[in-house]
Amino acid sequence: ETGVTQSPTHLIKTRGQQVTLRCSSQSGHNTVSWYQQALGQGPQFIFQYYREEENGRGNFPPRFSGLQFPNYSSELNVNALELDDSALYLCASSLYGNTIYFGEGSWLTVV
Amino acid sequence: EDQVTQSPEALRLQEGESSSLNCSYTVSGLRGLFWYRQDPGKGPEFLFTLYSAGEEKEKERLKATLTKKESFLHITAPKPEDSATYLCAVQAGDSSASKIIFGSGTRLSIRP
């Protein structure tokens, strides 16, 4: 158990809708990052937040956005959902961006 | 371009048959290399962090090593419960904008 919790665990959305995924960091961690993992692939870095500011981003379009709150919890928002957005979304927390610890993920299916 | 490549993609071993998984990388400004284990439908579970060439770390039947261009995860006398996907990741860039790049993983299957 890492102490990183994510919700919801599974959800189904329709193409064009918007989704919000939530994450609570491990106690003592101040940095949170989000990853997208398609079936059979390794996780792909979406972005990282530190002190409520985005401080790193992968190759994802602006419709992927996030927030980090003062208690270091975080949200991932995806607008205008596309079929290819179907994946496991992983949240990870760390102390100053060092070794990251993952939650169990949120499975998103877009139909 | 920063890249992480894992091989083989899949590996089937008999219980007790030792082997190694490979992770080769090309990144600028390596800050650390990580190994994770991922069971189906679960998030990755942290195993090791390696920071510099020559470093080694062990945990039960697993041993991770690091050179300037690759890392190996050695598994000694594996058991069926070691079956999982093993992911390698590298952290590159400075602390203000670091990113972590994952390989596609090696699916390890141990037959009783």
Question: What is the fold's blueprint, element by element?
Answer:
The complex is a heterodimer of chains A (111) and B (112).
Chain A: E1 5-7, E2 10-13, E3 19-24, E4 31-37, E5 44-50, E6 53-57, E7 64-68, E8 74-78, E9 87-94, E10 101-102, E11 106-110
Parallel strand pairs in A: 2-11
Antiparallel strand pairs in A: 1-3, 3-8, 4-5, 4-9, 5-6, 7-8, 9-10, 9-11
Chain B: E1 3-7, E2 10-14, E3 19-26, E4 30-38, E5 45-50, E6 56-59, E7 62-66, E8 70-75, E9 84-92, E10 99-102, E11 106-111
Parallel strand pairs in B: 2-11
Antiparallel strand pairs in B: 1-3, 3-8, 4-5, 4-9, 6-7, 7-8, 9-10, 9-11
Instruction: Report the average pLDDT across residues of chain A.
Output: 94
Largest sheet of chain A: 7 strands, mixed
Low-confidence stretches of chain B: none
What Rg of chain B is obtained from the alpha carbons, in whole angstroms? 14 Å
Order of helices and strands of chain A: EEEEEEEEEEE
* Tertiary shape of chain A: globular
What oligomeric state best describes the polypeptide chains here?
heterodimer
Question: Which consecutive residue ranges of chain A, at least 5 long each, have pLDDT under 50?
Answer: none
What's the N-to-C terminus distance of chain B?
Answer: 41 Å
Please work out how many helical segments of chain A DSSP would assign. Answer: 0
Shape of chain B: globular
Total count of strands of chain B = 11
Strand content of chain A: over 45%
Residues in helices of chain A, as a percent range: under 10%
Distance between the termini of chain A: 32 Å
**Structure classification of chain A:** mainly beta
Q: Which two chains touch over the largest interface? A: A-B, 25 and 26 residues
The largest pleated sheet of chain B is described as: 6 strands, mixed
Computed Rg of chain A: 13 Å
